[in-house]
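Risk register update: the risk of archive-format incompatibility is retired. Evidence:
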Amino acid sequence: MRPNIWVYCCISLALAGCLSDNYTIKKRQYASQGRLVYQKQCVNCHQDDGNGYARLYPPLHHALQSKPLDLVCLILEGRRGSVVIDGESYTLPMPAFGHLKDDELAKLLTYLYNTWGQEGPLVGVDEVEKQTRACRSK
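Archived output:
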């Protein structure tokens, strides 16, 4: 008996839909939990809208132009010295957040890249773990 190709196609489409739904659900969960990390760790300086505070703390839009994993070292190690964004100089240091766990960083980055009108990726814990190791081995 020869299997019906349509049955295989239907099953494949159904499985693909489930995988896509799982990705979307996980991305939403990470973004939701990442918002909590942002509220606890970042909002005092960068504000609810990510636009920073006056000329003291910079907006985040410039940082979100890079790849999510590029921000891991910055978040873990902080920043000393000034940074110029949109012609404005910001001189206050950013503290290190080395106490954040890899899953918190993954959720925070997923939130940052999927809020304020952006549609970004789900940042996985495995990816962040690799980047964290690279940051700490410098």
